[in-house]
Each structure stands twice: as structure tokens, then as C-alpha cells.
Design a protein that fits this description.
Largest sheet: 6 strands, mixed
Low-confidence stretches: 178-190, 292-296
Number of helices: 11
Strand content: 15-25%
Length: 296
Amino acid sequence: MKKYIIITDSTSELDKATREELDIQYVPMHILYEDKDIPADLDWGTLSFKEFYQMMRDGVWFKTAQINEHEYIAAFEKYLEEGYDILSISCSTWFTPSYNSSLAARDALKAKYPESEIICIDSKNVGWGEGNLCVTASKLRAEGKTIQEVADYVEAHKHNYRQFATAESLMYLKRAGRVSATSAVFGSLLHIKPIIGLVGGGNEAIAKTMGRKNSLIKIVEMYTEVYEKDPYGRIVIVHGDCLDDANTLKAMLLEKLPGENIEIHDLGPIVGATSGPGTLAIYGYGAAGAEWAKQE
């Protein structure tokens, strides 16, 4: 079987230990602020995790930018020259056109590497939903599955990776254009916390609660209602610099799912730039609900 590389992007949020353990590569997106353009580094090499979220609290507005075709060409060609095929798993096109850039790179490289295979997948996920698809792909590869077998499995199961998130403040979502200014102002005054799920490959407010504690109760309830055991991935809680709340959320989730292995990870710079400090999310495998009818 020909060897192949799994490549993803910054929105997968895969930490260095996971990437090294499972041999997963990533191409960084971009973070823009003031007059700077820096890589969306999952290892926080330019800005630390704490610095990033404190700057947001202090009023710095971070924007994000996609991976372009030339960056994908450089990333793919590095491994094609070494004789690898490429399995590229990208963030949902609802959030970014980076997937389209990966397709353009694939097409540009076909003539030069006619014997090589480049498969590009729109994960229809973001964050650890996308990350879990990469984890799954790596474990299937370790079982000896071909690149096409892994791609087929990812396509068949990508709708099963679920996200239930809540934001501490609506103002960051307003700034990113995810909610209206009126909703943000009145929501903040009334302590309304949105519950954000993946619908049709994109984020949508699927419920709302009053107060932080109720928002945690709600996302635990919503995930456990759809929960299914994942043979490959993991349940992950991510936090935007609110570790105490993440630990509370983990304890609440373990009450419902005793014995599950639940990991806590930092919320990465791309998703964090949109949702802001205080964000909490649960990512895990579950039944693909009726809302996926909007998917295709």
C-alpha cells in the first residue's frame, strides 16, 4: 500500500502532542490584527494562549484569513516529492474557502505528479469536530486502510461529529458578524447565553439560556441526548481561557457519561477570534440529527 500523509488546518485545533502521536500535519491559517499578519499557530509560538485572550479582553480585534492556493501547493508538494499521497481534511466551507484552495492546489499539481493521489475533503466541521475526523483518519491508516478507504469512512461519518458550545459574551460574535448588534446588546444586558451547534456545516444558535450555569447544563444535556460511543475519536471540551469552567463542565459531563475519557484543550486562535474569551464547547461523536437535512 502506498504511504500517505494526513494534512489539516488551524481550525482542527490539534495540539502538538496529538499531531506527533498520530502523525498529522497542518497548514496554518492567518490571524490579522493592527498591522500584523501572523500564522494561526496551534502551538502558540507567536502569541501565547494567555496573551491572545487577554488582548481580546483589552479590545484588540483579531480577524482571520484563509489558506491560499500557493500555500497548499507548497504544503502538498513537500510530501509529494517524498513519494506520499495526500489526504487533506479542511474546515467546513461555511466558515472559510480554504477547502476550495486545496482543490485548486490539487488540480495545479496533477500534471507534475500524475502517479500521486491527492484527496481533499470538506469536513463540514470546525474545531475538534474536524480534529476528530483527522484522529479517526490516522487510526484507520494505522489499521492498514488505504487512502481511499479512509476518505470514504470520513465522508460517511463526518455528520456524526457534534458540537455544542456557549459563549460568555455576545459582543465577540457581534464583532465577527455572527449576531446582530441589537441581539448582542440586549442579550448581554439580560445575561442570555447562546447555545451554538453545527447545522448544515455551519454554526447556528440552536437554543439560549439565562446565565452561565444554565448554559453549561444545557450543552451537557444536548450532547448526552445524541451521544454515541466513538471507536476512534474522543470527547473534547475546549475553553477560551476559562479552565475552571472547563473543569466544571467536565465533571458535569462525567456525571452523565461515567467512565468516558474526556479531554480538555485550549480553544485555538481561529475559532477563538470569533467566539472570544470565556467560550466553552463540547465536541464528540453522536447520532446525526434531523438538522443535518440542511447539509447537502
